[in-house]
């Protein structure tokens, strides 16, 4: 990416712009936050809102460079060594300060101390880290993870892990022995006693899991419309984490549509969303969430215009969603992730994001969006054509209402007052693609009657249903499906 492309990008996790040299504390906060996260670039001489290359006085570049170096050296701890460059854009002079991901976090402001001076990057902002986040940074420095830490509340032998043993046996063909628990880092010995790690508690059905990790659940909801004001359905998944992802995925499947298209003589089914990508994101939300953050659960929300998955914890510094096609591999939970892989819940390392990117290419009407919301990472699958479709739906509704009031066929007008064969046929096709005989069977009729043939023809003429093989009406494999107009018609009938 060249400099002009960079300067057109919005501020974010790894990018910030300043029209002039920031004051000491502001510059130090930016540098510390970058070092505690994935690193980043600060461009001095570029206004952000509105974006404009204002430039710096050429005679002052050396002075500004020296001030930047001195501020970072004097204000930040441990030592941070940035790369500082002079660059020119549109005959204007800028300073680029590149901060690399630090190897000894947490980094903080000397004068504030660790508890009050540690900052992290959240989106395009620099946020003061609390003790939980500082602990996470300390673990990163020691190359350990929260899920590997022991809980001395109860010996591992007294922990209820029966369902986990059953799942492990089913998925791997192996029994979980004492040796297996040690090998998987699910238990650790302290003074001769085997204690469970946080990971084993999360995989268990023991009351200790409910006590320590009551927030380690997935909240699923199908909302009415495009806001979270009214529920259609909801489910709280509080099982052990080995089963949460699939339960959440199945909830999504129950609340999204599966349509059909015809390719040649074949009818091809297709979900309205890229379900492989959805499943991968849900699985990642469970396996890679930050279990050290109390009071936060994974959320799966389905709206008319999108599916949204929110996972507690910021995106790992080494993972870049903007480069999904590149194989990227990292795990926040270094004990849980390998077990999920053994269970077949997650794919080979580095394949997940590429799988998502590959399937998204087949869904040009769906846009993948991601953002950091507070201390959570959120992924959205958004229907780009939703508003256009809504406008079309309203137009068709108006047309149908006018036709019902005028001349949509006398028989069809009766649908507003009572159930007739017309509505029965439409309802048979609501979630199915059927042949004439299939429709007849669904209606409880052994043979296709002349009346049914008459009804099918009138429904076709009214554009409420359509043939799957329109170019050959008498094809032996001919079937029928609802049109968009037919679905809207049914909705007007309350069907």
From TrEMBL:
What positions does the domain Schlafen AlbA-2 occupy?
A: 11-129
Segments forming domain Filamentation induced by cAMP protein Fic-like C-terminal = 424-483
Keywords, ordered alphabetically: Coiled coil
Q: Does the keyword Coiled coil apply?
A: yes
- Leader peptide range in chain numbering: none
Coiled-coil region(s): 383-418
Supply the Pfam families for this chain: Fic-like_C, HATPase_c_4, SLFN_AlbA_2
Instruction: List the protein's name.
Output: Putative HTH transcriptional regulator
